[in-house]
Design brief:
The protein is mainly alpha-helical and 140 residues long. It has 4 helices and 2 strands; from the N terminus they run H-H-H-E-H-E. The longest helix has 72 residues. The chain is rod-shaped.
């Protein structure tokens, strides 16, 4: 049997250990909950950012596909000589295509036998707030 003094010391020792262990355990538990919460928020933000990037990428590819299809329609079945001869009209048409799509900067078209001046003349129209350059290569 313990004396009352030893019992009191024992209770004080237990209280001292508890005063260290319980706050440490509470802190660890709160930290773990906060970590899981922040991790879930970061995961959600990453998912939203990926959705936005995916949508943006699809729009960029749709714009490029639309532009390529439209330019292909403009110069379909035209020989290199016909393209050279019709250069002013084609330049105007390509300029209108670029005007219709604000994210385009310029359209460049090159042929297998095209001269440097022809390519340069197609690039004379540039939009200053450009975000994309579409280059269409046609080989005959």
């Amino acid at each position: 049997m313990q004396s009352p003094r030893q019992a009191a010391v024992r209770v004080l020792q237990l209280m001292m250990v508890a005063s260290l262990v319980l706050p440490a355990a509470l802190f660890a538990w709160a930290s773990w909950l906060n970590y899981r919460h922040e991790y879930a928020i970061a995961d959600e933000r990453i998912d939203r950012s990926l959705d936005i990037l995916h949508e943006h990428t699809l729009k960029v590819f749709q714009t490029v596909e639309r532009t390529i299809a439209e330019v292909d329609e403009v110069v379909r079945d035209m020989s290199d000589e016909a393209i050279r001869a019709d250069q002013p009209r084609l330049h105007g048409r390509l300029t209108r295509i670029v005007d219709a799509l604000p994210q385009l900067r310029a359209i460049s078209s090159s042929m297998a036998t095209a001269t440097r001046s022809f390519r340069a003349s197609l690039l004379t129209y540039h939009r200053t707030s450009a975000q994309a350059i579409v280059r269409i290569s046609m080989c005959t």
